[in-house]
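Thread: Newbie trying to understand structure tokens

Hi all, I'm a second-year student working on a class project, and my supervisor (Dr. K.) asked me to get a predicted structure for one chain before our next meeting. I've only ever worked with sequences, so writing a 3D structure as a token string is new to me. If someone could post the tokens and maybe explain what I'm looking at, I'd be very grateful. Here's the chain:
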Amino acid sequence: MLMTTLITGGTGNLGSELVKLYPDSVHPSHIELDITNETAVMQLLTEAKMDKVIHCAALTSIRRCEEDRDSAFLTNVEGTRNLVNALASSDSLFVYVSTASVFYGDKGQYTELDTPYPKNFYSLTKLLGEFVVTESHLANYLIVRVNFASRKKWAYSRAFTDRFGSYLFSDDAALAMKRLIDQGQRGLVHVCGERMSMFELAKITTPDILPMTIRDYAGPPLPVDMSLKSVRIADFPLTRKT
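---
Reply by user tm_fold:
Sure, no problem. This is what the structure looks like when written as tokens:
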């Protein structure tokens, strides 16, 4: 039987880059597959016999997750659970895209050995999604924590000079993830790019971006330094092409 790859969130910044790397993948839109619909998820994964599922779909707006916690939990936690449960009796690879913001963000350079401590509800749901994966009976999984941004023009008029991450652009992150998959990496892995401020990152694609600091911000609490290190793999280069 022909096996294939399912990519959830295939229209997002990371998912769309992964679709380019897996051109034969199945990558339904949200309308075509609502991951919060347990029956629909089970039907698709039972009928299609995927050899791997790369799970990028999530509610990622920190503000929206804080304001609509029910939707955030349903999508980011229960949606993940539906996918995991549908794969429970298979040996298919499940790849869960997590975030560096599962850490509190007071020191940075977090490794796979550091204890997560989410600072906002979005980060909590992503950590709970990790728990869904690790506490399941899946025989074959990979959890990837990563900082990435689209290579497009910065979405806002300003960017933080005092918030830091180990950034990659989404096409770099997709290539890094495919390399991990091809190498047979399993378990929890930090994919680390270059440590820099959000302002430094934004200037690569948006030279006229204006600076701001965390003092200029009003909203849900944010980690200040969510940079990552890995005890398992080498860092990946951030390519500066625009």
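A couple of things are worth pointing out once you decode it. The first strand starts at residue 4 and ends at 8. The two ends are 41 Å apart (CA to CA). Feel free to ask follow-ups in this thread.
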